[in-house]
Design a protein that fits this description.
Elements (H helix, E strand, L loop, with lengths): L1 H4 L2 E2 L9 E2 L3 H8 L1 H32 L6 H9 L6 H11 L6 H8 L13 H29 L3 H9 L4 H12 L1 H16 L3 H6 L11 H11 L3 H33 L1
Antiparallel strand pairs: 1-2
Helix pairs in contact: 2-13, 3-7, 3-10, 8-9, 10-13, 12-13
């Protein structure tokens, strides 16, 4: 239906006429500087998810799979974001970032770095990175669970054999553990791609895309156009673009993984 609506100018009310618009919504989309800013933020979020969230999630997954002391406490602390809704996380961190009563500025003042206090969410230069920190805090435990579950399925005999052969911990990780986690890494990458392109709730709560659209993302812009400004046709155009982009990136990722597996064979 979104594809159908993208060729009309319509306010979303069935009592209102649907005016054929041809490709005008698509032309407007590619000329919309706010949309491209949102797309840029989504791209940054994809990069951060793949280069930061997944590697840290992998390392934590390996760490919590060991029998070292304190692992239960680490599991508890890192599971905390999984028990909160995106709205709850957004409200919590909005308070932490508060320029007057927030925890971050309070700590900076306490340790004598009051000159670094800042309106973290009110400055376009720091708002997007402040939001990215929260997103990483929210999703790293998710990837940690994926990798911890994958590690639990690896036969212990393989690690014992590597130890008997004299392999170091790093050699065991890169030669045994990592190759056996390929499927988990592939799944995490695809989830990161799709999730990063569809991210909405936390940014909606924390900044609503501001200030000056510095934290705008495509899903939030789609929502605003369709349900706040009643431009259902234009909002549907953004939705179709997001779907095509998500599908394309997923297919490319799968193809790259298959090609990598062929080279290994």
């Amino acid at each position: 239906m979104s594809l159908f609506y993208s060729f009309f100018k319509w306010n979303g009310f069935f009592s209102s006429p649907m005016i054929p618009a041809g490709l005008s919504n698509w032309v407007s989309l590619f000329k919309d500087t706010i949309f491209w800013k949102a797309a840029e933020n989504n791209f940054l979020l994809v990069v951060i998810s793949i280069l930061i969230q997944i590697p840290i999630g992998l390392l934590l997954g390996v760490l919590v799979s060991t029998k070292l002391k304190g692992m239960k406490l680490i599991k508890l602390l890192y599971f905390l974001p999984m028990m909160l809704s995106a709205v709850g996380i957004g409200l919590l961190w909005e308070y932490i970032y508060d320029p007057n009563f927030g925890l971050i500025n309070a700590v900076l003042n306490f340790i004598g770095l009051g000159n670094l206090t800042h309106g973290w969410l009110g400055d376009p230069k720091t708002a997007i990175w402040s939001v990215f920190v929260v997103i990483c805090w929210e999703y790293i435990p998710f990837y940690m669970i994926i990798f911890a579950a994958a590690l639990s399925g690896i036969p212990k005999e393989l690690f014992e054999a590597a130890r008997i052969d004299g392999a170091t911990h790093s050699q065991t990780f890169f030669k045994v553990t990592l190759p056996l986690l390929t499927n988990a890494i592939r799944t995490s990458t695809i989830l990161a791609l799709i999730g990063s392109l569809q991210y909405f709730a936390l940014i909606y709560v924390m900044t609503d895309g501001g200030p000056t659209h510095s934290t705008e993302v495509m899903a939030l812009l789609m929502y605003k156009q369709a349900f706040r400004f009643f431009k259902t046709g234009y909002g549907s155009t953004i939705a179709v673009f997001m779907f095509v982009l998500s599908l394309s990136l997923t297919l490319v990722t799968l193809k790259l993984y298959r090609r990598g597996r062929e080279y290994e064979v």
